[in-house]
Design brief:
This protein has 60 residues and is α+β, with helices and mostly antiparallel strands. The protein is 23% helix and 23% strand.
Length: 60
């Protein structure tokens, strides 16, 4: 069995406000685990002051 992966072609971000809370979602195309970790590092720096955050990353 061959593993098959799908990805996005460009960066995408969406912000939504619900009952006074702000939710931010971002997705980035990457080719390696290292690129994913770099993107996560950039997001953590950009949103360092968030009270509650959840990040998911997977790499090969």
């Amino acid at each position: 069995m061959i593993d098959e992966y799908h990805s996005i072609k460009a960066d995408v971000s969406k912000t939504m406000k619900v009952e006074g809370s702000k939710f931010i979602a971002s997705a980035y195309p990457v080719d390696s685990r290292q690129q994913a970790e770099e993107k996560l590092g950039n997001v953590r720096k950009k949103f360092f002051n968030l009270k509650n955050s959840s990040m998911l990353a997977s790499g090969s």
